[in-house]
Design a protein that fits this description.
Elements: E1 2-3, E2 39-40, H1 49-52, H2 56-68, H3 80-83, H4 102-107, H5 129-142, H6 151-176, H7 192-195, H8 202-217, H9 232-235, H10 241-256, H11 285-303, H12 320-333, E3 340-344, H13 352-358, H14 379-384, E4 407-409, E5 422-424, H15 432-437, E6 438-440, E7 444-447, E8 450-453, E9 475-477, E10 486-487, E11 492-493, E12 499-503, H16 504-517, H17 521-534, H18 540-547, H19 557-571, H20 578-584, H21 588-591, E13 596-599, H22 606-609, E14 612-616, H23 632-637
Antiparallel strand pairs: 1-2, 3-12, 4-5, 6-9, 7-8, 10-11, 13-14
Helix pairs in contact: 2-5, 2-6, 5-6, 6-8, 8-10, 10-11, 10-16, 11-16, 16-17, 16-19, 17-19
Domain RagB/SusD: 345-647
Subcellular location: Cell outer membrane
Main location: membrane
Length: 647
């Protein structure tokens, strides 16, 4: 693909064509400036729409260009959900080992409206999602010009473009709330008042995205999007019917959630044409609609052969405990596994940097500076996971919650920990997802080429020895490191995997949530229990009845809501879900304002190291921090836009 630089200028809020290419209206939706990273596929550097759609080959290049606008969600500095919330923390300030500091500044409360961090509205990491939407519209408007395109291929390509247009709108909606809907490109001859677009009500945006996804998923198995990708060598990463239906389910669950359903915090937010952007009235039917969408997606997934992933070790001998741990890790890290609904393959190595950021030094005889170990979960994440009995640590009547910060010595019976090591009671008798997801001083780390010990007190090989390459909290994100990663003192070989935008367990938990909120709590339990069984846990009913101090908790809507939310927080930990879930549930002001604690990593003894240390006191300001600010300059360019509340 060749890089095409698009030159535009503002003249009465109108742009101008460059070298015959249809106008790139960066002004649309108040965008502030031209971006010089718009990828187009044009033969011989002749930048014309006619050449881009002259034949099937050129049009297919244009289609693949649409995918290039997708944010790199598997990159730790390009997805706000990794380091922009409270799921992972990092030493500060950083002078090395980063691509962008934007997410870390968001986590520290430094977001601003003059030059917003991670500003995907105008352009971040070379990607403006409005440009992506415009490219989709251009593709849809011109595909009929391709004369050598088989009808069935055309139908599929149209569906892909509609899906991507919906996804770009969705990404912006999740970040900014009510946004303009850009279903058609604005003509270069349009008067200024047509260019000055308005933000649309949240419900209208949700409905528009859902309709686009319905269009994308339309047709039978032989029409439109495929249900499964059959050409693995050329098409993995392209969207399927199941992906379109699953993303629709996520959109509708979000639209039914408290942030968008009966939220009075934004009751006064109106577009400049007088339209209310948030409906303050709660609508229970939104949950019913969301549940129905989830079920359609689940049925489509089942028909396509998708199922929860279970680890098959092959010739590698592992015990039953390790198998359960690898059920969890490889449901994310095994490429194209059985429960992956849609995985992003952007940049060719979508999770390369993520794994480097996550893995610490594991071998004292092979120190490698590419193993950074800096993506550090805070102590609150360690406390989130259940006990081995499948209930919260503060609810388990058999677990010593009061003494969770006191030292104990491990034995050979403590799977996932080094025998004869001392660590806090918090790390004992926890569910397998805890040991699969997180590593800590005294834990073990299973890889395909062997099991390593993590020892991270001061000056130990996994710990702090310099101003970089260490965990500020004493915890490490094991879950997102592929077990095939191999390192020596001179080389690291990382097996990158598609970033799982949606996997089946995520969809099951969305369905359970929608069922509970729509009055079908009993129907939600089987989907929760399937996810729990894969993690080696008993059912919700059995665990709460036998081990919880609140045994009837799951029998009420509010009680099951708490269970579902914690189950989701655990199952989806370190996958970019928590950041958005806390917002849509409207629990962010409490959770994201809680202090960030870690262990005293500057100490070398068991007693001194295993002391809680306050690292940061974040503050989530509601309603301001629920949404990104629109850049101030955009509001000057397009006075029909309004700023988000609090900015």
């Amino acid at each position: 693909m060749k890089l095409l630089t698009i030159y535009t200028r503002y003249s009465g809020l109108l742009g101008r064509k460059s070298i015959g290419l249809a106008l790139l209206l960066l002004i649309v939706a108040g965008m502030s400036s031209c971006k010089k990273s718009y990828l187009d596929v044009v033969p011989d550097n002749v930048a014309t729409i006619d050449n881009a759609f002259a034949n099937r080959n050129e049009a297919e290049k244009y289609l693949f260009t649409l995918y290039s606008y997708l944010p790199q969600e598997g990159h730790p500095d390009k997805n706000p959900a990794f380091s922009g919330g409270d799921e992972a923390w990092t030493y500060w300030p950083m002078t090395e080992d980063f691509f962008y500091l934007d997410p870390y500044n968001i986590a520290r409360g430094n977001q601003n409206r003059a030059d917003p961090y991670m500003n995907y509205w105008d352009g971040y990491d070379g990607k403006s999602l409005w440009q992506g939407i415009r490219a989709c519209n251009t593709f849809l408007d011109n595909l009929d010009k391709v004369t050598d395109l088989q009808p069935y291929v055309k139908v599929r390509w149209v569906a892909e473009a509609k899906f991507l247009k919906a996804y770009f709108h969705w990404y912006l909606f999740r970040m900014y709330g009510p946004i303009p809907i850009m279903d058609k490109n604005i003509s270069i001859t349009a008067p200024p008042e047509e260019v000055k677009v308005y933000r649309q009500p949240a419900d209208s945006v949700v409905n528009y995205i859902a309709r686009l996804l319905d269009d994308a998923a339309a047709g039978d198995d032989n029409t439109g999007l495929p249900s499964v990708i059959t050409s693995a060598s050329t098409e993995l990463g392209r969207v399927t019917k199941v992906a379109a239906l699953a993303i629709k389910a996520r959109v509708l669950v979000t639209g039914a959630s408290p942030l968008f359903n009966g939220n009075n915090d934004f009751a006064g937010l109106k577009a400049n044409n007088g339209k209310l952007l948030f409906n303050p009235q709660y609508d229970a039917t939104k949950w019913t609609r969301a549940a129905a969408a989830c079920k359609v997606a689940i049925d489509a997934a089942a028909a396509a052969g998708l199922k929860l992933y279970y680890f098959a070790p092959g010739i590698t001998a592992v015990d039953d405990v390790t198998k359960v741990e690898m059920n969890i890790r490889n449901s994310v890290c095994e490429k194209w596994n059985s429960e992956l609904i849609w995985g992003l393959t952007s940049s060719g190595n979508p999770t390369f940097r993520l794994q480097e950021y996550a893995i610490p030094q594991l071998d004292p005889n092979n120190i490698n500076l590419d193993l950074k170990g800096k993506l550090a979960p805070p102590l609150k994440m360690a406390e989130l996971f259940y006990t081995k009995n499948g209930v919260p640590i503060e609810e388990d009547k058999t677990w010593d919650y009061a003494n969770r910060f006191k030292l104990r010595t491990t034995t050979s019976a403590d799977a996932g920990m080094q025998n004869g090591y001392q660590t806090v009671g918090l790390h004992f008798d926890r569910e397998r997802r805890f040991y699969a997801d997180m590593a800590f001083d005294g834990s073990t780390w299973f890889m395909k080429n062997g099991t390593y010990n993590v020892q991270s007190k001061l000056e130990q090989y996994s710990g702090k020895k310099q101003s970089r390459l260490y965990s500020i909290t004493g915890y490490y994100t094991k879950k997102i490191v592929n077990w095939n990663l191999v390192f020596s003192s001179t080389n690291v070989t990382v097996e990158s995997y598609p970033w799982p935008v949606m996997r089946l367990s995520d969809l099951y938990l969305l369905y359970a949530e929608a069922l509970n909120e729509s009055g079908n709590s009993a129907a939600a339990l089987p989907y929760l229990n399937q996810v729990r069984a894969r993690a080696g846990l008993q059912s919700v009913e059995s665990s709460w009845t036998n081990f919880s101090t609140n045994p009837a908790k799951y029998t009420s809507v509010s009680g099951l809501r708490d269970i579902i939310r914690q189950e989701r927080g655990i199952e989806m930990a370190f996958e970019g879900s928590r950041f958005w879930d806390l917002r849509r549930w409207k629990t962010a002001p409490q959770v994201l304002s809680a202090p960030i604690y870690g262990w005293d990593i500057l100490q070398s003894s068991y007693e001194d190291y295993n002391r809680r240390v306050l690292l940061y006191s974040p503050r989530f300001v509601a309603p301001r921090d629920y949404f990104w600010p629109i850049k101030e300059y955009n509001l000057q360019v397009n006075p029909n836009l309004v700023q988000n509340s609090g900015w």
